[in-house]
Amino acid sequence: MKVLILAAGYGTRLYPHTRSFPKPLLKIGRKPIINYLLEKTQELNGVSRIVVVTNNRFFKQFQAWRDSLPRSLRRSVRLLNDMSTGPENKLGSIGDMHFVLCKEDYRGDFLVLGGDNFFKAGLLDFVCFARKKYPSISVGLFDIKDKREARHFGVVRINKRNRIVEFSEKPSRPKSSLVAMCLYYFPQVKLRLIKEYLANSLNSGDAAGSYIGWLSRKDKVYGYVFSDFWLDIGHKDIYKKAERVFKNKE
User: Fold this and answer.
1) What is the pTM of this model?
2) Of 44, 64, 228, 39, which is closest to residue 124 (Cα–Cα)?
């Protein structure tokens, strides 16, 4: 299994924090956000490589970050530069997945993590769940308990078997408060669906939510509901909230 961390965004909603600094390297407590994700991957068996995809603006900063990692971890982390230079030509999350797959071989499953995810739970239960649903794709879900707040996310409904039966990207009237995290498990046999999705000119590489909606209509997609807390560090208020959560849980 390979781990892919998406870290090529420009974090425009977090300006001025991210005007010249990548969002995944912002610190919560004493560590960058991405370090919490790396620690979670260390709980997993069978991880052959961790790929971090970033952009040309922040590539040198990620190189410095990787150089600061313990030697044993540094060896397993590969950095890729998608060569985008700003929001106007970014590839987007799905575009970056495709970019990485063109650079990497298709052997093995991929666990994909958004580099701005901040959550407490480990990844082992999610990976075990996903492997039981093999060869279907699995997605991390979280119940934010507030339908009004859910309007800012991809909203999901699942059946008793945890299969996604409905997906709506940022609906004006959400039917549930269950939202999709940027956390996916792609079995090797389903990686081709990324290329198939992007082959349609109407599909955007920057719309992960639309992609999950497309997948759930085309194939079986299952959702694993995480507990405790999860934050998508998308703007300044959420970043401040993450810092407060961290202090309260120390």
Assistant:
1) 0.93
2) 44
Residues 6+ apart with CB under 8 A from 246: 28, 29
| pLDDT tens track, the chain, 250 positions | 999 999 999 877 778 777 889 999 999 888 999 999 999 999 998 898 999 999 999 999 999 999 999 988 888 999 999 999 998 999 988 999 999 998 877 678 999 999 999 898 999 999 999 999 999 999 999 999 999 989 888 899 999 999 999 998 888 999 999 999 999 999 999 988 888 888 875 666 666 777 888 889 889 999 999 988 898 887 777 878 777 777 655 5
Which residue matches tokens 């339908």? 147
Gap between the Cα atoms of 43 and 63, Å rounded: 24
Between CA 85 and CA 81 the distance in angstroms is 10
Secondary structure (DSSP) of the chain: -EEEEE-----GGGTTTTSSS-GGGSEETTEEHHHHHHHHHTTSS---EEEEEE-TTTHHHHHHHHHTS-HHHHTTEEEEE----STTT--HHHHHHHHHHHHS-S-S-EEEEETTEEESS-SHHHHHHHHHTTTSEEEEEEE-S-HHHHTTSEEEEE-TT-BEEEEEES-SS-S-SEEEEEEEEE-GGGTHHHHHHHTSTTS-TT-HHHHHHHHHHHS-EEEEEE-S-EEE--SHHHHHHHHHHHHHH-
Q: Which distant-in-sequence residues (6+ apart) come within 8 Å of 206 by Cβ?
A: 90, 91, 92, 93, 94, 95
